[in-house]
Amino acid sequence: HQSIVRRNAFIRNHTIGRNHSFGGAIAIASVADVHVERNLIQGNISGAGGGVIIGNPPQGKGKTIVVNNIIAGNIAEERGGAINCGANAYFIGVNNTIVGNKARSSGGGINMAGSSSTADVFNNIIWDNHPDQITSFGTLRATNNFVQHGLAGRNNTDLDPEFLPDDSLFRLSPGSPCIGTATDTLLLFGTAVPAP
Predict the structure, then answer these.
(1) What is the rounded distance in angstroms from the CA atom of residue 23 to the CA atom of residue 129?
(2) In this structure, are residues 121 and 109 in contact, taking their beta carbons and an 8 Å threshold?
(3) Fewer CB in a 10 Å sphere around the end CB: N or C, the chain?
(4) What is the mean pLDDT of residues 78-99?
(5) Residues 36/69, Cβ–Cβ less than 8 Å
(6) Which tops the pLDDT comparison, 59 or 179?
(7) Are 84 and 53 within 8 A, CB to CB?
């Protein structure tokens, strides 16, 4: 079984909790696979996971695949400005633009909170997030990403992606070094996964 969240605009939502709040736009706690595709997730606020929080599924149960989204300008009062991954979470991020998100403590772009969390990030632009782009306490495999200040992994770069000025959808300028650099397949556990 799988759930799909596709072609939505999640804009300026705010979650409030007595002690903690989670997932300003999307909160995922599932033992099944969840696909988050082609959404605009912008200007949301939460305690953890200003844009998206991926909860703590039982070990080896369910993965969250986040593909072709704009995740921008979200705020986490604690951690994970754009995306927060809990313990045991398996997150695959492909072809996303993750820009201008903020967290008070860690993971302005992506925060992997647990040592048992795993992420594969591929073909993403992760830029201008604060206080950092990615904080990982788990297993992070990163390939072919544009990440401000750089990121360990294969074919990652810190070249400026050169967005069009004042464009709220972060489209690329004609001379952007991102154009034509994405690869169309990701190899996971010996299986080729398309990166549309």
Answers:
(1) 17
(2) no
(3) N
(4) 94
(5) yes
(6) 179
(7) yes
Q: Is the backbone peptide bond immediately before 161 cis, with ω within 30 degrees of 0? A: no
Q: Which sign does the torsion angle of CA 132, 67, 90, 46 carry?
A: positive
pLDDT given for residue 36 in this prediction: 95
Is residue 138 within 8 Å of residue 115, measured between CB atoms?
Answer: yes
Q: How far is CA 169 from CA 36, 53, 60, 180, in A?
A: 18, 22, 35, 19
Contacting residues for 27 by C-beta, under 8 A, at least 6 apart: 15, 49, 52, 53, 55
The residues with which 73 forms a beta bridge, in sequence order, are none
Chain centroid to CA 24: how far?
Answer: 13
Q: What is the DSSP letter of 120?
A: E
Distances (CA, A) of 33 to 25, 60, 97, 112, 178: 18, 11, 22, 18, 29
- Give the Cβ contact number of residue 43 at 10 Å: 20
Could you give the C-alpha distances from 154 to 8, 29, 109, 141, 144, in angstroms and in order?
32, 30, 19, 9, 6
